[in-house]
Amino acid sequence: MAAAALREQLNALLSSMFASGLVDDQFQQLQMLQEDGGTPGFVAEVVTLFCDDADRIISELAALLEQPIVDFDKVDAYVHQLKGSSASVGAQKVKFTCMQFRQLCQDKNRDGCIMALAVVRNEFYDLRNKFQTMLQLEQQIQAQQ
Amino acid sequence: MAVVATETPFHVLAVDDSLPDRKLIERLLKTSSFQVTTVDSGSKALQFLGIHDDDASTVSVHAHQLDVAVNLIITDYCMPGMTGYDLLKKIKESSSLRDIPVVIMSSENIPSRINRCLEEGADEFFLKPVRLSDMSKLKPHILKSRCRDHYQQEQQHQQSDSNSNDCSNPTNKSSSDSTGKRKAEDNGEILPQKNRPRHS
C-alpha cells in the first residue's frame, strides 16, 4: 500500500484514540519529544515498555486477588504503579480506571477490585492492540521511505 | 582557561523504579542537553554516587572526580525499599554529596509530602508526568550550587579577594546581589519558587 494511504490510516487511528479518550495529551507529549529529539524509535520504545510493565502488573494483581485473604496493601501498591506508568505514557482510560481501582482497594472491597481488574485488563488489551497497529503502520510507512 | 566549564553538558542522575518512567525522564533530560545516567533504585543511586547505604557519613573520594561528577539528582518519591525521601536524606547527610541539588518527582500531589521534601533540602518538586517545560527549572539549581561551591572554595583560599567569576558575582562585601540567588552568609536557601509545585 502506498505511503500516503498508510499515513492516512495511521492518522485516522491516532485521531480516534485521542477522540475516544484512550490516550490524552501526555501521549502527544511523547510524540513531540520523539520529533524534537530526533529519536525515531522513542514512542515505540516507551509504549512497548509500558505494555510489558502493565502486563506484568495485571498478572500480579490477578494472583493477589485470587488469594483467600487479599493483601489490599500489595494490590494498591501495584495499582499505584500501573496508574503511574499509564499516566506517563498518556494511557488515559487505563489511568482513570486505576484511580477507581485504588479507591476500591482502600475500601477493601474484594468484589469491586476483581471487577476493576477485569475492566483494566480489557481497556489495556484494547489500548495495546491499537498501539501495536500504530507501530505496524509506522514501520510500513518507514519501509516505504 | 575557563574556570567554569560550560561547554561540557551537566550530568543528571535520574532515579525511578518504573522502566517507562525512566525512559521518559531520560529522553526529557537528553532533549534538554543533559548527560544522563538512570538507575532503578535509591541504593543503586548511592552506589553510583560512591557512598554506601550503611555509611552515609563516609567521605567519598570519588564523588567529585570528573568521571562520576553528578550535577543534579532527580528521583521518584514512591519507590520500594528506599523511597526518594530516604535517598534525599542520605544525600543531605553526606558531606560529599549534600551540595548536589535534588529534585523529587511524584505522581501524587500531597502538600505535606511536598513540604517534607522541601524542608529536608530538596530543591524542587515535580508532579508527574514530568514535562519538557519542567526541564528548564533544573539548570538554575545546578548553576546556583556550582557558584556556591566555587564561592566557598574561593573563600577558603583567598579571604579578601573579590575575583569576578562566570556566575552571578557574590560580592562578599556588599549585599547588592542583583539575582538574589546567593548571599554571603547563608547557603543559598532562598529560592523564590521553592514552595510552589508545578501546576499542570
TrEMBL record, chain A:
Any Pfam family matching the protein: Hpt
Role noted for this protein: Functions as a two-component phosphorelay mediators between cytokinin sensor histidine kinases and response regulators (B-type ARRs). Plays an important role in propagating cytokinin signal transduction through the multistep His-to-Asp phosphorelay. Functions as a positive regulator of the cytokinin signaling pathway. May play a regulatory role in salt and drought tolerance during plant development.
Principal place of residence: cytoplasm
Phosphohistidine: residues carrying this PTM: 80
Protein name per its UniProtKB record: Histidine-containing phosphotransfer protein
Residues covered by the HPt domain: 39-138
Keyword Translocase listed: no
Comment field on protein domains: Histidine-containing phosphotransfer domain (HPt) contains an active histidine that mediates the phosphotransfer.
Key words, A-Z: Cytokinin signaling pathway, Cytoplasm, Nucleus, Phosphoprotein, Sensory transduction, Two-component regulatory system
Membrane spanning residue stretches: none
Domain of life according to the entry: Eukaryota
GO cellular component: cytosol; nucleus
GO BP of this protein: cytokinin-activated signaling pathway; phosphorelay signal transduction system; positive regulation of cytokinin-activated signaling pathway
MF (Gene Ontology): histidine phosphotransfer kinase activity; protein histidine kinase binding
Keyword Phosphoprotein: yes
CDD domains associated with the record: HPT
Subcellular location: Cytoplasm, Cytosol; Nucleus
SUPFAM superfamilies: Histidine-containing phosphotransfer domain, HPT domain
From TrEMBL, chain B:
Annotated family: Belongs to the ARR family. Type-A subfamily.
Keywords: Cytokinin signaling pathway, Phosphoprotein, Transcription, Transcription regulation, Two-component regulatory system
Modification sites for 4-aspartylphosphate: 76
Known role: Functions as a response regulator involved in His-to-Asp phosphorelay signal transduction system. Phosphorylation of the Asp residue in the receiver domain activates the ability of the protein to promote the transcription of target genes. Type-A response regulators seem to act as negative regulators of the cytokinin signaling.
Biased composition, class Low complexity, residue ranges: 153-172
Top-level lineage group: Eukaryota
Region (Disordered): 149-200
Gene3D superfamilies noted in UniProt: 3.40.50.2300
All copies of domain Response regulatory, residue ranges: 11-143
The name this protein goes by in its record: Response regulatory domain-containing protein
Entry's Gene Ontology BP terms: cytokinin-activated signaling pathway; phosphorelay signal transduction system
InterPro entries documented for this protein: ARR-like (IPR045279), CheY-like_superfamily (IPR011006), Sig_transdc_resp-reg_receiver (IPR001789)
